[in-house]
Amino acid sequence: MNPLILTIILMTVFLGTMIVMASSHWLMIWIGFEMNLLAIIPILMKKYSPRAMEASTKYFLTQATASMLLMMAIIINLMHSGQWTITKVFNPTASIIMTLALAMKLGLTPFHFWVPEVTQGISLTSGLILLTWQKLAPMSILYQISPSINLNILLTMAVLSILVGGWGGLNQTQLRKIMAYSSIAHMGWMTAILVYNPTLTMLNMLIYIMMTLTMFMLFIHSSSTTTLSLSHTWNKAPLITTLILITLLSMGGLPPLSGFMPKWMIIQELTKNSSIILPTLMAIMALLNLYFYTRLTYSTSLTMFPSTNNMKMKWQFETKQITLLPPLIIASSLLLPLTPMLSILD
Amino acid sequence: MLKIIIPTIMLMPLTWLSKKNMIWINTTTYSLLISLISLSLLNQPNNNSLNFSLMFFSDPLSAPLLVLTTWLLPLMLMASQHHLSKEPLIRKKLYITMLAMLQTFLIMTFTATELISFFFLFEATLVPTLIIITRWGNQTERLNAGLYFLFYTLVGSLPLLVALISIQNLTGSLNFLLIQYWNQALPDSWSNIFLWLACMMAFMVKMPMYGLHLWLPKAHVEAPIAGSMVLAAILLKLGGYGMLRITMMLNPQTNFMAYPFLMLSLWGMIMTSSICLRQTDLKSLIAYSSVSHMALVIVAVLIQTPWSYMGATALMIAHGLTSSMLFCLANSNYERTHSRTMILARGLQTLLPLMAAWWLLASLTNLALPPSINLIGELFVVMSSFSWSNITIILMGANITITALYSLYMLITTQRGKYTHHINSIKPSFTRENALMALHMTPLLLLSLNPKIILGFTY
Q1: Which in A94, A153, A346, B321 has the greatest CB count within 10 A?
Q2: A-B interface: how many C-beta pairs under 8 angstroms?
Q3: pTM for the full predicted model
Q4: Is B49 a member of any domain?
């Protein structure tokens, strides 16, 4: 794509999210979402194949529906409270509709069906933007309306998302679909704690973004989109296999890596609020996630997968640039001792 | 306590910066020195614990386990030298780094005061062990073994996390030094029954108790020698140590909640011993023997009398040394014949007589021959379970008999009789291997002169 056009489009995506996060008028928020949506469609279609067109269409339709639902909730809120300022939404109908709209934008169950298919149809870099940057805007609105969200709906969606995210990823070999199901499960963890302690939602978002960024950077570096092609990395770049191992185990939530920190804090907050069965169930369902991450590490780093004889003589394309990989690796694996510092997120 | 933890952490830069021909020498020497430091902890002057800081302490229960852990690292390094000799240098260094990392986590686990930090490090020991089993094991089944190991332990221990946090909400602190003074009876309610279950299941899976033991034969058999040694000697004892610590907070539910687990352990000890008699795989036999010995420890911990605690602690230390030695002996067979089938390498006494002496000593301690500490542990457990209920003597007696049967079966099959004709060209025993066995056996025999130090905090 022409670099100038690409810059303008990326700036519009950035600007859209910034408008959502910084406004105090509901209409501006809706405008920010639309700007974000319209600008990201060309990025999703960078590859220009029928599959990419299908993915972008699905993304556009779901996000536009969600924006329309959001607009309806805003109007109902306007009708009942007479003002456009962002505060907690007092009317229950408007609150429920807004929660459902934002859940559609995030990809929570039962609105999760678009996430794997859209992520699969686009390139790795676009998938990266989709799964990390696009989650920021809806999550910031959820954070701001968190005192008024109906707990039953949100917790049901959260627990179902964790279940679907774990179960759905079990049969996948395509890496982008694995990352999509992982995103669904992590969104579930984030929204489960939203009503009790929104700071932990932000912590989980931060750690999740760092881990997903790391994973995508590693995939981009080895140009692999399937488990099979990832299993060739021991031949070409053995260090990447170790990094993939560490990051995947961190995403699965194993101590002593930093992926354990959000899960531990969320379980602690939920237990403090006297719900005991819920965090136990959530923790056990997160083990489904861990299973397919471990399976991925088996084929990549812990075994030397059989490959053809002339693997070392493969075409060596120019090294893809991976920005900021060392700090990201550190952030996604070693942050656990810094847990007391999460008070800065308040 | 930092005087042990920091040198163990520094073993990792030591391996990466050592020259190619010095890595084994450096790491083995320094880990032996670290184990010397830990011996000073065995001096427990008063009835209370030695408190080093708010975060680390050591009492008569954790000190012997700590000494065992630090003693075992040089032995693991010595045992791994042969099978890693053909690997590239970076992989050797990675292996030693994994072992050092595992050692750090184990030391911190045994000395942690806060129960949450104990849990956290308990889980953290899974990652290096998984990597050691899956990356350096030898057969295809190791992948399945790693999965079973990881998931059995995690499913058991995640409810423990929730239980610990809810206990912290109720009582305000999980610091072990405080809890032993604050202890109150747990009120009788359904949710406290589930709390009991959540606290204990993690350790039951780790021990392992009979119904949940499926991961152990797989993991022990598929792991390389250092993995098997650390699994059998230390990681199983983590379960026992955790149970000993946490049952203090769980009265009076333990009086009735313990019955199903006692029944399972008593029956399981007979079943796993009997299975040992029918095993063809040598490592699998030793693995099932571990399950059987640990079932005795579970019975002892759940009975909760002073004598049974002494028996449990002594049995843990004794079994750690014996089981690790048996795995080293099995590995010396495996390195020569590349097969774990027992009947393929028979009659080794004619070919390797000194090794046969070690086999004899190991089998004799495995069947709890007097005056070894194995006997002291088993005897205390049998006596306390007899006083708890007279009928258990039948099962305990049967177990001791069957243990003797399979230990002697293992000894006679591998050592006595006519040797198989295809093994008359095996290499003689290396000095390294003889040193390894001696270093296992010497503490075991010397402790029988002064078993007071391993009898735990109820002595």
Answers
A1: B321
A2: 71
A3: 0.92
A4: no
